[in-house]
Design brief:
Elements (H helix, E strand, L loop, with lengths): L9 H9 L1 E7 L4 E3 L3 E3 L4 E5 L7 H12 L9 E6 L3 H12 L3 E7 L12 E2 L12 E7 L8 H11 E10 L18 H8 L12 H8 L1 E7 L5 H6 L7 E7 L1
Parallel strand pairs: 5-6, 5-8, 6-7, 8-9
Antiparallel strand pairs: 1-2, 3-4, 9-11, 10-11
Bound molecules: zinc ion (ZN).
Zinc ion binds next to loops.
Length: about 250
Amino acid sequence: MATKWLPKSIKEFILKKVLKGNYVFCSCCKTNLVTFFPYGTVARSNAYCPICSSLERHRLTWIFLDNEKLLSKNEKINVLHVAPEPALFRNLIDLSQKNKIVYTPCDKFEEGYVYPKMTKNYDLTDLPEKDNTFDLVLCSHVLEHIPDDNKALEEIYRVLKPHGKALLLVPLDQKLEKTYEDWTLSSPEERLKAFGQTDHVRMYGTDFDDKIKNIGFEVVQFSSKNFTSDEQFKYGLLEEDILFCATKI
Ligand SMILES: [Zn+2]
C-alpha cells in the first residue's frame, strides 16, 4: 500500500493563507478553511484537505483519538501504524519527536513504491514483534487487501497489550449483511467489478463487527452518525465511514 509523505512547505503556507475560512475544520492539521477539495475517481465533494492531505476517514480517526485522549496519556505509549497515511503519519512523527509516543510505522513493501522514512517492512499476518507490545494499533483500509484477514486480526490482537486498542477501518457496504468473498475471482478486472478495486479481495458487510469480536476483541463503533449534519459538513466526514475501536480484553 503506497504512501507518499508531503513535508510542510511554502506551498502549504500559501494555501493556508489563500484558503483561510471558517466553513470547515481539519481535525488532523487543526486548520480552519473555506472548503475541503473534491477527491476520488467519482469525485466526492468536501473530501480532501489541501494542507495535510487528510481524507474523511483520517479526520474521523483523529477526532476519535482526540476525544478519547488516546495520544495524550501521562505515560509514553507505543503505537503501531499499518500502511501509514500521510496526514496521520506527520502528526504521529511530530508526537514521536516530542517524545510523547514510541512510533512504529510499517507496511508490506512492494516494488516501485516509496515509503516514508522509518517505515518497517512488516507482513501483517506475521508481525516480527513480541506479544503485548503496543498500546495502540492504527490499521485503516488494509484488511481488504489481505486474503487471510483473520490471521492479520489475530496478529494485531497478539501484539497489543491487554486493554490496548486497535482502530480498524475497512471499505464496508452497509447494505451487505455478510462479507462478500469469491476466490474464483482473481483477475484485476474481476476484482474491480466485484470489490471496487483491482487489489481488493473482498467487500466487507455489517458482519465485520462480529469478525473482530470473534478474535476476542471488545468492539465500539464510531462514525459520522455521532455527529449532526452540520458537524459532518464542518469536519468533512463521510456517511459510510465507520471506525471500529477494538479493545484487547
Ligand atoms: Zn488538514
